[in-house]
């Protein structure tokens, strides 16, 4: 079956599309990547998304963005298909994560009850209508209805792709937020440990944007961080945040590491030193998560990194420094383009859902049991 996965992450950099051929079922599934590509969000769309993410916003803006994003997703599918000479008609299914504009997996008191809520926008019906392909969207809500946090959902796919009979592995995705799935050697799916470790590229990106007055979206090839020095005492203070000590399951988001986070930096600090320190913070918080919550339960032989952070050389160098004895690899070495992993994941999750099979890992989300994820727009 040919399945497209569409992902747009917390970085708000754009839309990733992976086109896959998938056969078989469950843990015997065979999935191969046929094509992968991306389309950046127009700057105005990104601004509008920032304007409605985790803040007071007009519901009309949210409703309109829900439609507009679906149009952009459809255009992204056509663009990636065209570039790779694939007919959109040949697709059997699309899995669309949508853009998260609000996520509170743990729940808060609201109108006298505890309510956990999440919202991924980019309407499935419109995407199905434009492409002529059935769409599965809205993956997180069913897991939350079953008492889970709705995240992370990628661990099912990490287990499928990266489990090994002899090696203990950590699959790490460094997107806006960094998250990992740890799989013990020869472990069962329910042995996987998964959680968000904290910031990925989000703080680095916010610093780059602020420093360049919006001209730089990120610290390309760590050019800024490479000229700075890590402020060790500031790094220690930032790492004292409760989040890093809190045991999993736990999720992080833009509400923690958005532009407001930069206010924790001394205003007079040189941009190069601030960038080096923030880059080290991402690496150190990942390593701390592994040391605190993974190593006590399993041996870690390899770390398999994916996401845009893999392209940040300082970040990867700090990570190697903080994790002695762990072999650092990238998912590309396993045939999974590092930029494509999350889009690939939502193609695989959609395929499972279409076949009526559950694909949340209750050990990762905290759900009461396995559930079939998503809503179908036939
Ligand atoms: N050449 C590069 N140098 C440094 N960082 C990069 C580079 N390319 C991409 N990135 C980082 O990757 C981020 C995008 O990562 P991505 O995995 O798409 O995140 P998300 O899933 O949150 O959208 C960019 O915002 C940037 O921080
Ligand atoms: Mg992205």
Question: Could you name the key traits of this structure?
Answer:
binds magnesium ion, alpha/beta, Nucleotidyltransferase, domain 5, 13 helices, binds adenosine-5'-diphosphate, 6-stranded mixed beta sheet, 5-stranded mixed beta sheet, 378 residues, 23% strand
List the helices and strands and how they pair.
Elements (H helix, E strand, L loop, with lengths): L1 E6 L6 E10 L6 E11 L2 H10 L6 H25 L9 E4 L2 E12 L2 E9 L2 H8 L3 E3 L2 H6 L9 H8 L6 E6 L2 E7 L9 E7 L2 H10 L20 H8 L2 H4 L8 H4 L13 H24 L7 E5 L6 H10 L4 E4 L10 H14 L7 H4 L9 E3 L1
Parallel strand pairs: 1-4, 4-7, 8-11, 11-12
Antiparallel strand pairs: 1-2, 2-3, 5-6, 7-13, 8-9, 9-10
The chain binds adenosine-5'-diphosphate and magnesium ion.
Molecular structure report:
By secondary structure, the protein is α/β, with parallel strands linked by helices. It has two domains: about 1-150 and about 340-375, ATPase, nucleotide binding domain (Nucleotidyltransferase, domain 5, 2-Layer Sandwich), CATH 3.30.420; about 155-335, Nucleotidyltransferase, domain 5, CATH 3.30.420. It is built from 13 helices and 13 strands. The protein has helices spanning about 45-50, 60-85, 125-130, 140-145, 155-160, 200-210, 230-240, 240-245, 255, 270-295, 315-320, 340-355, 360-365; strands at about 1-5, 15-25, 30-40, 95, 100-110, 115-120, 135, 170-175, 175-185, 195-200, 300-305, 325-330, 375. The chain has a six-stranded mixed sheet with strand order 3-2-1-4-7-13, with helices on both faces. Bound molecules: adenosine-5'-diphosphate (ADP) and magnesium ion. The site of magnesium ion has 5 residues, from β2.
